[in-house]
Amino acid sequence: MTEAALSGVTHPILENDYASEWMGIEVLAVSDGHATIRMTLRQEMLNGFGMAHGGMIFAFADTAFALACNPVNPGPGDMDSITVAAGVDINFLKPAYRGQVITAIADRRSSAGRSGLYDIQIFAADPGQTGSSPDSPLGAGQPGELIAEFRGRTILKK
Predict the structure, then answer these.
(1) 3-state DSSP assignment of residue 62
(2) Higher confidence at residue 62 or residue 72?
(3) pLDDT band at 157; cut points 50, 70, 90
(4) Is the pTM of this model over 0.70?
(5) Under CATH, which number does the domain 4-156 receive?
(6) What does the pLDDT average to over 56-80?
(7) Are 27 and 14 in contact (CB under 8 A)?
(8) Which of 7, 17, 57, 137 is most exposed, with minimal Cβ within 10 Å?
(9) What is residue 46's DSSP assignment?
(10) Is the Cβ–Cβ distance between 20 and 63 less than 8 Å?
(11) Which positions ≥6 away from 30 have C-beta within 8 Å?
(12) Is residue 12's pLDDT more than 90?
């Protein structure tokens, strides 16, 4: 994956992540226990009802989850701390449509021993309607309307 596709933000797990590249995922922020990503919904991401396919929303949230729960700059000893999903739940709250920009915000809630718990919220907004502008109808700082909530549980890969 090219650095240009990542807006200058990089993470080692994206180096050969062809699914995220195909989806057009842009990494906005990533740090220990946190990730913010976005992408634009394209026609081939829709189901037969003209809404975003649930699998696309799930895959998008899963990428944010993976970014938040793995080291951003792994050192030699960090290869023993790579985490994978132990289980996930997703709740779809509202549909999203072609051309909308979706944003996922992932945050660690807990980490103990070999396990972790992460919450990911997914928002959708029409292009230009994200809350990055004080004039946005969504309010300043709001990345769109909440469309799904994803909760992921991790375990150390050994």
Answers:
(1) helix
(2) 62
(3) confident
(4) yes
(5) 3.10.129.10
(6) 84
(7) yes
(8) 137
(9) B
(10) yes
(11) 9, 11, 36, 67, 68, 72
(12) no
